[in-house]
Specification:
The chain is globular. By secondary structure, it is α/β, with parallel strands linked by helices. The mean pLDDT is 96. 39% of the residues lie in helices and 34% in strands. Helix 1 runs parallel beside helix 2. It holds the Pfam family STAS. It comes from Hymenobacter algoricola.
Length: 109
C-alpha cells in the first residue's frame, strides 16, 4: 500500500493506493497518529485506488474516530470503489463515517 499526503486550506488529504490489510494498516495508523493531523479541520481519505480493505484496516479508522471527534476534525471518505463501499455498508460503518462520491463533496462537507 502507498499513502500520499496533500494539504491545503486546513484540509489534509490522504490518498490510499493498493490493499489496506493487517501489514499496511500499521502505516495508516502511523499517519493518523501524527499530532499535526489533529490541527486540520478536515481529513479526507481518497479511496479511488483502494481496492481492498481488511478488518484491520477498518479497525484503524474506527480506533481514530473518537480522537477526531474530540478534536472537531471531520473525517470524510470519497471516491470509494463499490466493493470497498460494500464492506462499510455490510458492517454498518457507513452510518458512523461520512462517505461521499467526490472530492468536491468531501471538501464542501
Amino acid at each position: 500500500m502507498k499513502i500520499t499526503q496533500e494539504s491545503a486550506d486546513n484540509i489534509l488529504t490522504l490518498s490510499l493506493d493498493g490493499e489496506l490489510d493487517a501489514s499496511s494498516s500499521v502505516l495508516l495508523d502511523t499517519e493518523l497518529t501524527k499530532p499535526e493531523v489533529l490541527h486540520y479541520k478536515k481529513v479526507l481519505i481518497d479511496c479511488q485506488k483502494l481496492n481492498y480493505i481488511s478488518s484491520a484496516g477498518l479497525g484503524v479508522f474506527i480506533s481514530h474516530l473518537q480522537q477526531f471527534q474530540d478534536a472537531d476534525v471531520k473525517l470524510v471518505f470519497f471516491n470509494m470503489q463499490e466493493k470497498v463501499h460494500n464492506v462499510f455498508e455490510i458492517l454498518g460503518l457507513d452510518a458512523l463515517m461520512t462517505i461521499v462520491p467526490s472530492q468536491a463533496e468531501a471538501t464542501a462537507f
